[in-house]
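input
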Amino acid sequence: MKVFNSISSYVSQKQSIVTIGTFDGVHIGHQEIIEKIIEDAQNSDYESLILTFFPHPRMVLAHELGVKLLNTINEKIELLEKIGLSNLIIHPFDEIFSQLSAEEFVAKILVEKLKIKKIILGHDHRFGKDRSASIDDLIIFGKKYNFEVEQISAQKIDQVAISSTKIRTALLEGNIVLANQYLGYQYSFSGKVIKGKQLGRTIGFPTANIQIDEAYKLIPKNGVYIVKSSIDEKIHFGMMNIGNRPTVDGKNQTIEVYFFDFDKDIYYTSISVTILDRIRDEKKFDSLEDLKKQIEKDKQSVITYIKQP
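output
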């Protein structure tokens, strides 16, 4: 897959079949659209192309600096490459770009720059200045500028339309199973292992403290989770605590993972943690001994889970 850092850097002699959006999460609804543009491009010898944006438009237009996203840029690139996309443009979104009228966007970007032959979009896509134009407007522009427009209906699970917003809500409520179902893969994050206060060692559960560099990456609700990581090409299961460690009067949120049957020094290395399920809420215990007893129970819950087919 070729990755371009702006619209102006994209060059191809072929016409393209395009879709546009932030694609946060690259969930199963997104995947249906992406697989369709790839299939159509392969059948017609065109380029398959996604135009996406960073920063997220809400960060720029609504000045929502606290926006939390399901994917980092690198995660999104990896997911799209796995699906089989040929070209990805990650265009810097700014105030100037947001002022393009709908027709300017179509004529100058889609037609002139991207050589669009066909565009495939979701059911609720809007574009142009102030998001003023709809799919109906795009169909009119398609007739004027000679490209085809295809609309994909909302993908549904249990009659609930999937959206990135609903997945974020599920994660913030601790419903990792539902989030993973909507995503079509297991939610994960990557970070560097840093030194903490090493209190886990004192009760027999040494943990890897994970520091995530991307402040915009969404972290699920505080609590205890079942996780796995690939370290040195081997899968290690474990349990993760996200929270403020109230038993020891912690003040800041930490992410700590205890891996089973693992004793290597991985300080200052980067690892990816995949979240499988949630065990319980974070809780304040009366003593470290009570905390240790609960962690032993949690460990048994994880062992039972990973033994399941």
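quick obs: The first helix runs from residue 28 to 44.
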